[in-house]
Every structure is written in C-alpha cells, then in structure tokens.
Amino acid sequence: MERVALAEGVPPEVVRDGVLDGSIALLLNNRRSIHGLAVGSGMRVKVNANFGTSGDDADMENEIAKMLAAIGAGADAVMDLSTGGDIRAIRRRTLSQCPVPMGTVPIYQVAAENMAEERSLAELEADRIFAAIEDHGRDGVDFITVHCGVTRESVRRLKDEGRLLDIVSRGGAIHARMIEYQDEENPLYAQFDRLVEIAREYDMTLSLGDGLRPGCLADASDRAQVQETIILGELAKKARAAGVQVMIEGPGHMPMDQIIANMKLQKRLCDNAPFYVLGPLVTDVAPGYDHITAAIGGAIAAAAGADFLCYVTPAEHLRLPTVEDVIDGVIATRIAGHAADIARGIKGARDWDDKMAVARKNLDWQNQCALAINPAQARKRRAETAPKDDRVCTMCAALCSIKSGLDPIPSK
To answer: Strand, coil or helix: what is 205?
Structure first.
C-alpha cells in the first residue's frame, strides 16, 4: 500500500481506506513479488492490454513480444486471453516475464481443453472450472475475469427482450450455452462461495465479467446488461464481506449519450467498486480504427467514473493484433485515461500538459519530444520533413506564430 500510494501521490491511508471499503482494488497475487497496482476511486486511470493465442495462431513467442511491447508502451496491466496451444505453459511463461499485474480468463482454458477432447462447450463441468481457477491462482495470476452474472434470470431477460447481436462475450456465450444445455444454474453464481475461497487464498482479485455486455450500439443499456450489473453488485458485496477484492466489468459498445448514465448506474448498483470497461466503442462502423472509437468512449467513461480502461487495437473485430497494433492500442487508451485524469482532478495530471506548453513556447523540440506520450513517434514525425529553420516545423515554417512572438520587432 505504501508503494502504490507513493506512485499515486496520495497518503497510504487513502489506499488502505479504499481497499477496506471496496472502492479500490490492489492487484497483486500473494505469490508474486512485483509492485501492486491500485485501481479505483481517487487513483490515476489505469490501462490494461490484452494478448494471447487463438486456435488459428498459437505462436507463444509472438504473444510474449506483444505483452512486452504493451508494457513498454505504458500499459499498467496485461491480460493473457490465450485460447490456443499449450495454455498452461503460455500462462506460466508470460507470468515469469511480466513485471506488471497480469489477469486471465480461466474459462478459456477449460473450453480449449474440452474442444481438444472433442467435447461440446455446453458440456463443461463445474469441478473443472474451479480446478482451472485454482490453477491460475496458484500460478500467481493477479486478477481473473469470471462471468458470474450470466444466470438463468439474466439470460431469460436477454431472450425476452431480443437483441440485434445477441451475446458477443466468449465467456458469456459459453456460460449461457451451459445453462441452456444442462438446465442448471451457472456454477460460478450457484457456488460463488467456492470461488471466493479460492480468490481469498491467493489474494486474487475477482473481475466480475460482463458476459452480457452489448456488442453493438443497438443492444446498449438493455435489460440483460442492467440485470447482469445488478447481480454483479450483489456478488461484489458478498465477496468484500469475505475479504476478497472485486472489480466490475462494463459495457463494450455504447452511444456517447448513454455512457455517463451507465457509469453512474454501475457505481450506484455496485457500491462504488472499481469499474473496468472495454472502450466503450461509440460507433460500430470503424473496423481498422476501433482504437479511436474506443478511446473516445473510454475518455468519456473514465471522466464519469470508470477506473480501468481495457485497450482496443486497430485490429479489433478483424484479426489477432500485431505488435504495432498493440502499441497503437495502448497509446490511444493512455491518451483517453490521461484526458480523464485531468477532468477528474487527479493530482499532477495537468502538470505534464503544462510542461509541454512551456516547451512549445520555448520552441524546445527536444523537450517536446521527450514529454510526448510516445516519444519515439514524436521524434519520427519531426524528422520526416526538415524545416529550413530548425526552430520551427514545416506546418507553419516562417509564419510560425510562436517564433514571431520570440523574434525582436524590427525598427521602423
């Protein structure tokens, strides 16, 4: 708590009190020796970056390169979402090289193993799910996404209302199929106490997943999404009472005019628990540019109360991201988070911008590039076209307004 308080620029008591009342989650498995990460009320907005294999692309080395690139670009945490190859080996290898908190989605491992055995995803067994969760905790995973809010009741509401794009969460779809096929309640909901016991043993934060999140604008703020949030709020209270830290995951696609209301609703229903959002993406028509649509929504969401932004890359909806996509996604999301920090009045957030303004006033190009959120990109762009006068840039050249203000006025 003292380490993260120092990083946040707040007294340790602020972190302690936030952890006690559930408004802050301190991401750190008790088997890891990294610095923890504080996510929640009064803390700087944090950025998460996903990586991981698929059944069509299971190159472990490539995913490790993406993880390290994301951290190098400034991601505060990462998640291994691997669904292909040797998932256990990938998790353990990446954990051994990861200097920041790392999350996973245990149901992916169970689903991949079932498919390898040529069994239906609807036939997943509760004991195997909990065994995988235990395995992840023992390995040192700091936070896990668990889709406890996909219940018989929330799925019924989804079907009764109808959706344009149905369920877009992989974990949400798996649990919904299990409920329908087995005619039983989601085991992560029915046996929530069992889940809490495992999380408490490893001090592993539960990220209560939005398995029924909207996957297009038309489905935003519907009954299924709100019903799931109500359930997650109830489960969060139960987990906190048992000494387990919790975050709540939020919507994926949402029109701009609905974002602020959704953030306030989640905070109210979940007793101010840290809110972890994917985007939200504010339009559905920008494949190839969804890091931008997500950054727009993320900035609005974080300014209104979201605490943890999951990045979206330009490859979202199209393919696995490349290393370059990962960097673009992290930078776009960091911009959104920083803009929100300024709006939230986070201590020191505006100082960075003020230093940049001073560097620009002084035509100090070296310092401008050093202060940039991505210094390498700033230096690259600056060097691409050289001005005749190196005090200015090629946008305005001799008509640079700042230069004209610094130059002496000629005598008459």
So the answer is: strand
